[in-house]
Amino acid sequence: MSTRDHLGSCHCGAVRFACAIDWSRGTSRCNCSVCAKSRFWKAVTPSAVFRLLSGEEALAQYRFGRGEIVHHFCRHCGVKPFGTGAHPALGGPFHAVNVACLDDLDPEALAALPVTFEDGRHDRWDVAPGVTRHL
Fold it and tell me: What pTM was computed for the model?
């Protein structure tokens, strides 16, 4: 599976989006406090290939720590369909899409996606934490 267009949504469907994801970049899970508590599984994609189709008014934002990442949540169902930020190593402005919110991937496709673990708790994005089974 290489670059492919996808549709996604929050649980209640108030927030809907479309994006292109280059699956050769893989997916990741991190152990920072917010990702670990919410089990956020992300695929990072350039903001230029992300489109919010509906639900802007339904989105709430949350920032913590240095506040560099904006976590976007549906005000109605509480699901986080994506986060946003900007970082040169990620190509500038990006969307971190919640893989679990993609509506067009079946369980077999999800299970086949490569996952990299990141030690976000210690700002070591290039190293996996010692324990990952809970992520």
Answer: 0.89
